[in-house]
């Protein structure tokens, strides 16, 4: 069973490459490149003064190919969201519902607040702490769009996410998405 690439809304490349290597047993043939930069010009074996390191990885297999190879394994490996308890650790689970936008702001404030993708599922809400670079084209641009374009958003999705905690005051969960796929 595979997923139509046009239905992929969010794909965490780090998660997909790790799971591909773990589940398929194959190395996605990563080439790792490290770049160092600095402002102090001092770099010792164990100490760095003002030195930064940036690592980039290039794979011989595309992230979508890796994802297609492991999709059915992911569906089988993880449970569906049923319950979650604070202070008992995080859980990687499947959630199904409607993807929409949420906003946190001070009560009564006229200023724009922090906007985020939110999943409404079975009477619950989950706020996604997401890396915008993993969103499909167009989805990351919505935050800067006019408020006129942000109404009536309710995309049916299936999502694999790490549920991290429940915010009792806000009555919602907070999760880091790994995969979000539009449901037909």
Write a concise synopsis of the structure shown.
By secondary structure, the protein is mainly β.
Features:
single chain; 184 residues; mainly beta; two-stranded antiparallel sheet; globular
Number of strands: 8
* Helix content bin: 10-25%
Q: Which structural class do you get from the secondary structure elements?
A: mainly beta
Instruction: Determine Rg (CA atoms, Å).
Output: 19 Å
| Residues in β-strands, percent | 35-45%
The major beta sheet can be summarized as: 5 strands, mixed, barrel
Order of helices and strands: EHEEHEEEEE
Stretches where pLDDT is under 50 for at least 5 consecutive residues are: none
Shape: globular
Distance between the ends: 14 Å
Number of helices: 2
Write down the overall mean pLDDT: 85
Which strands sit side by side, in order, in the main sheet?
4-5-6-8-7
């Amino acid at each position: 069973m595979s997923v139509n690439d046009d239905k992929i809304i969010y794909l965490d490349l780090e998660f997909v490459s790790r799971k591909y290597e773990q589940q398929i047993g194959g190395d996605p043939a990563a080439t790792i490149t490290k770049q160092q930069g600095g402002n102090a010009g001092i770099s010792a074996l164990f100490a760095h003064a003002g030195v930064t390191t940036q690592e980039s990885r290039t794979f011989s297999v595309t992230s979508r190919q890796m994802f297609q190879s492991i999709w059915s394994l992911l569906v089988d490996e993880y449970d569906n969201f049923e319950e979650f308890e604070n202070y008992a650790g995080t859980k990687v689970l499947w959630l199904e519902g409607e993807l929409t936008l949420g906003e946190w702001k001070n009560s009564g404030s006229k200023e724009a607040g922090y906007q985020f993708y939110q999943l409404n599922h079975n009477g619950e809400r989950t706020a996604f702490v997401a890396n915008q670079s993993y969103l499909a084209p167009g989805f990351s641009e919505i935050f800067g769009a006019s408020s006129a374009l942000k109404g009536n958003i309710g995309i049916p999705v299936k999502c694999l996410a790490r549920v991290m905690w429940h915010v009792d005051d806000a009555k919602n969960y907070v999760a880091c998405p790994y995969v979000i796929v539009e449901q037909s």
